[in-house]
Amino acid sequence: MSKVLRLTALVASVAAFAISATEAAAAPVSATSNATARARILQPLVLKSTANLDLGIIVLAGAGPYTATVSLDRANTFNCDGGSGNVVCSGTHTRASYNVAGTNNQNVTIASGPVTMSDGAGHNLTLTPDHNTTVLLTNSGAPGTDFWVGGSISVPSTTFDGVYTGTFALTADYQ
C-alpha cells in the first residue's frame, strides 16, 4: 500500500474514532419519566342513633337453674328462648336504628363491642349487638342511609329483677 493511501486510511480511522467518541460523550446522563398524582376526597361520616333497642319485658318463669337467651336481630326477628317456657316475653320490642351519611356509593365498616347493661344496683347483663359489618352509602350527605341493630342477652335464672340499660358504642369508617 502506498504511503499516501496508508496516511489517508490512518486519517480516516482517527476521524471515525473522534466522531464515535463525541457521540458517546453526548449521551444523556439523566432520564425523566412522568407519574400521575391522585387524591380521593370523601365527605366526613356522620353517624346518628335514631331509635333505641328494646327487648321488652322478660319474666323468669321456669324452675332453675337455666340460662335463657332473648334476642331481636337486625332483621327484626324476635326470639324468646326458643319457646322453652323458662322465660315469658311480652311488651314492645324494637331494634335500634342508625343513620350514616357521607359520600355516595362508598362502603362503610360498622363495628361495635359487647354492651354492658346494668340495673343500677351492681347487677349486669351483657348484650351482644347484631348489625351489618358494612353499609353501602346510597346517597351523598343527608338524608344518609339507615341501618338497624339488634342484640341478644343471656338471662340466667338467678338474674335480679330490675330495668337493665346500657349504651351502644358503634363506629363507622370508610373502607
Q: What secondary-structure arrangement, pairings included, does this model have?
A:
Blueprint lengths: L2 H23 L20 E6 L5 E4 L6 E6 L5 E3 L6 E4 L5 E6 L5 E5 L3 E4 L5 E7 L3 E3 L8 E12 L14 E4 L1
Antiparallel strand pairs: 1-6, 2-5, 3-4, 3-11, 6-11, 7-10, 7-12, 8-9, 9-11
Summarize the structure.
The chain has one helix and twelve strands.
Describe this entry's structure for a reader.
With 175 residues, the chain is mainly beta. It has one domain (46-174). Helices cover 13% and strands 37% of the residues. The protein contains one helix and twelve strands; from the N terminus they run H-E-E-E-E-E-E-E-E-E-E-E-E. It has one helix at 3-25, and strands at residues 46-51, 57-60, 67-72, 78-80, 87-90, 96-101, 107-111, 115-118, 124-130, 134-136, 145-156, 171-174. Strands 1, 3, 4, 6, 8, 9 and 11 form a seven-stranded antiparallel beta sheet that branches. Strand 8 (115-118) and strand 9 (124-130) form a beta hairpin. The longest helix has 23 residues, at 3-25. The mean pLDDT is 88.
